[in-house]
Amino acid sequence: MAKQFVCNKTEPVVQTKAGKLRGFLLDGTYTFHGIKYADAKRFQMPEEVKPWEGIKDALSYGYVCPMINDPVPNGEVMVPHRYWPVNEDCQYLNIWSQSLDPDAKKPVMVWLHGGGFSDGSSIEQVCYDGENMSKYGDVVVVSLNHRLNVLGYLDVSSLSPDFANSANAGTEDMVAALRWIRDNIRNFGGDPDNVTLFGQSGGGGKIWTLMQTPSAEGLFHKGIIQSGVFDMIPVRQGADGKAITQAILDELGIHENQAEALATVPYRQLADAYKKVAPELEKQGEYVGLAPLANDFLPGDPRQVGFTPFARTVPVIVGTVLGEFSFGPAIANREALSEEEINAMIEKKYGDSAPELIRLFKAAYPEKHLTDLLFVDHLFRAPSRDFIVKKAAHTEAPTYSYQFTLELTYDGGHVAWHCSEIPFVFHNTEKIPYCNIPGVSDKLEEQMFNAWVQFARTGNPNHPGLPQWPACTPDDEAVMIFDKTCEVKHNFDAELVDLIAKTAPDFRFDDEDQPIQH
Predict the structure, then answer these.
(1) Is 280 exposed, middle or buried (0-12, 13-18, 19+ CB in 10 A)?
(2) Count of CB atoms within 10 A of residue 180's CB?
(3) H/E element holding 200?
(4) Cβ neighbours of 68 (radius 10 Å)
(5) pLDDT tens digits for range 176-219
(6) Which residues have CB under 8 Å from 439's CB, separation 6+?
(7) Quick one: CA dihedral 482, 372, 504, 358, positive or negative?
(8) How many CB atoms lie within 10 A of CB 107?
(9) DSSP state letters, 316-374
(10) How far apart are CA 375 and CA 245, in angstroms?
């Protein structure tokens, strides 16, 4: 059946602070793509867009920030992607809403994309589309692009006072987007006093970074951090970019007297120079960027320096998935394996710790197949638990914990992997083939989706479709398990994760940013 589509010279048109924008209406959802929320020169802070006359179209997604490595289609069944034209001028956002009434005051949910602080975009994954979340949740959904990698997270402050916070320029882009939302979202039906950030992986990391960023204080009110606490992409403390800056200048043949020319070098030349010199400096322990830097604009990682007074007041949901980086093939014919064969596989990976890990895994996940122990994540789960315990110590706002443990039917049965929960959150499982499990995925989608929306609405994720989900305390991590059967477990995997963290092989990344073990 055809949907109702409206897009003409007079509607839907919305007045913003800088001028009028035209979007489109599709079956009751007002949609605006590619709204310019700020402008910025390279390495400098974003500025408000200049006013315009007439009506601008917001009918095409905006540019995506260039990436250090060109995207390569890979594993698209597990994480379906979309690719888009790139440009440094990438400060764009998208909006989905059920109303354009300034008095509607619907909750605003702002999606921050993954990809660390180096890659990704607001439309990179197919499941990032905000239409269903807005329609079924009656919320205003916003997604945004911002500067990444050497454009958004490289300290070249030694070159010019104008570059003073170049190390966190990408974060300041997000702050600029939140200011735009504060100033304009009411005319899109949203409530500027009820803004929730939610994001996965790097997007989750951006949320706790913004919680610690003074310029973001008061611009949002709640945060949902999905697989977003990860020690391998740290906020650096007590570092500066002098070494990496000089190495890039030398590689490009730019004399220090002309150092500001770095601001005009074509992006690909800049990125290639960075890729050539950064690995050796990183081996030496030098700062090489591509993640936030603690400086006068950012106090640092809250787990290291403490939560700021503002961060303490932000209600949060923090969680992970069971397998995270388990992108490889599932265990073939696992049901035919003997207990001895499974134990041998576990011993090969974990050595002398295998018997104790088997005991702890069976206690934590009695319903799971023992081979899942080979894929249990600690890289996100361990630091997330640390974050939860330290945040829960501040009683100004609640802290909730979850874990997504659903076994997906891909490859004959696969432990949940990094990003696999996102379609359930967005109410987009219909768009993603692997999510479709008859009798399971529809129910779980409603449970997760409604928890996220209810939290955005009230700061509490509880709703009738879930067991009671209590907030955490420093001594009691109450973890909502999202699976075929949802349940709350208390401090259930602490010993397991701690022991895996001590014994599991280390992870590094290859040239295509894929995880590999060492």
Answers:
(1) exposed
(2) 25
(3) strand 190-200
(4) 20
(5) 999 999 999 999 999 999 999 999 999 999 999 999 999 999 99
(6) none
(7) positive
(8) 22
(9) EEEEEESSSS--SPPPTTGGG--HHHHHHHHHHHHGGGHHHHHHHHHHH-TTS-GGGGG
(10) 39
